[in-house]
Amino acid sequence: MFKKNDYYIIAVACFFLGIFLVAQFYAGREYSRVIQPENNEVIALEVAKLTKTNADLRREVQDLTHSFDVYRSSTESNRDAYEKYQSDIKRLSIINGNLPASGQGVVISIQGKLDLPKIVDLINAIKNIGSEIISVNGVRITVNQNLDQFAGLNQYEIKVIGNSKLVKTAMERKGGIVDQIKNKDIVIKIVESNSLTVEVGTPLEFRYARIVTDK
Fold first, then answer.
1. From CA 128, how far away is CA 121, in angstroms rounded?
2. Which residues pair with 107 in a beta bridge?
3. What span, in angstroms and rounded, lies between the C-alpha atoms of 129 and 109?
4. Angle formed at CA 136 by CA 114 and CA 91, multiple of 5 degrees
5. CATH homologous superfamily of domain 101-198?
6. What is the tens place of the pLDDT at every residue in 7-21?
7. What angle do CA 160, 162, 168 make, to 5 degrees?
8. CA 33 to CA 25: how far, in whole Å?
9. pLDDT tens, position by position, 137-186
10. Pairing between β-strand 101-111 and β-strand 187-198 as defined by DSSP bridges
């Protein structure tokens, strides 16, 4: 026969047993939720999203790096193009007589009168050798230079910038321009020089040509 105190003890034991069973029930549910296949799929999906995000970030870094390389290459190309443009402008300005020129070459001294055909032949022969920088009596010879002013003078000093040895040898060769224009009244002497300067010439002016503009 149970006593009154025994019922109290049984009630307390049942209470704690109930708490234990409830805790076990919820723990079991949580464990089942974690190990369920759909939760594994969610975790796998999150991992896949993270992997894709990292791949996108790497791709973006690569794209930015490529863009930077292209920009740097473009900048270098533009700089090279600008430097080439400046170099071409300077070269053409020297050829056109807009800038002074200096370098090795020859000085041709002529005693005696030359008519216009001989002057033209002499200048053309010098140009054909490969020399483009020429002055006659201090006047730069350009494409629009009038050679009439040099006809009939008593003496000439012609400066030619170019390969000094080549110019001298080509002019003095047998049958060359010196042989063609010299005679008993015309004495020609050619001296090589390591440093010559030819000053600027007359600015190029067109008498007949006009710039065409769109209407």
1. 10
2. 159, 191
3. 18
4. 140
5. Protein of unknown function DUF881 (3.30.70.1880)
6. 445 554 454 445 444
7. 70
8. 12
9. 999 988 778 899 999 999 999 999 999 999 999 999 999 999 999 999 99
10. antiparallel
